[in-house]
Amino acid sequence: RGVRRADLDTLQRLLRQVGLSERRYASLSTNGIGYFVDFNAPKPIMLYSNATTVRPGTAQFYFNTKVHRAIAKAILPFYREIVVNRPFACIVVRAIRSGNRGLLDRVVRSIVATPRLRSVAIESSGFRLGFKYAASPFRFDNLTFGGAP
């Protein structure tokens, strides 16, 4: 309901429930079909965004809590590994910077252990993980990308 109604107060409350307080992220937004959490980063990036959303242009104001929770459960170990394991994080960065999708795919799938992960793609400054669950007719993406604020 918080995503569909663009209710940022509700989204902030939910993020606090999982240990992500407002002082740990730069901003929060929603587009009615997903949500974006932005984090400050050192120069030259300045800001990293992470989003989980239905592919734009495929639905309006559609949100499936069951699918979003399943995606979060699948990807949290991957992001946790990036935070605590610098060599692992460096491999992810190297794969993205060199455009080595095969390496990124292997690294992601070594941690994200769900058959619902259908694709791993390199974006201009990050990556896109594509998921498809039987509980929804839509494909979902989890994206991480960097840029200027």
Descriptive report:
It is a single chain. Helix 2 (65-84) packs across helix 3 (86-98) and helix 3 packs antiparallel against helix 4 (101-111). A 6-stranded antiparallel β-sheet has the order 1-2-3-6-5-4, with helices on one face. A hairpin with a 3-residue loop joins strand 1 (27-30) and strand 2 (34-40). The mean pLDDT is 84. It is built from 4 helices and 6 strands. The protein is globular. With 149 residues, it is of the alpha+beta class.
Topology (SSEs and partners):
Elements: H1 8-17, E1 27-30, E2 34-40, E3 47-54, H2 65-84, H3 86-98, H4 101-111, E4 117-123, E5 126-132, E6 139-147
Antiparallel strand pairs: 1-2, 2-3, 3-6, 4-5, 5-6
Helix pairs in contact: 2-3, 3-4
Task: Describe the structure concisely for a colleague.
The chain is an alpha+beta fold.
Highlighted features:
six-stranded antiparallel beta sheet; 28% strand; 149 residues
If helices are DSSP runs of H or I spanning 4 or more residues, what is the number of helices?
Answer: 4
Could you tell me how far the N terminus lies from the C terminus, measured between alpha carbons in angstroms?
27 Å
Main pleated-sheet profile = 6 strands, antiparallel
Give the overall pLDDT as a whole number: 84
Radius of gyration: 15 Å
Order of helices and strands: HEEEHHHEEE
* SS-derived structural category: alpha+beta
Number of strands: 6
* Overall geometric form: globular
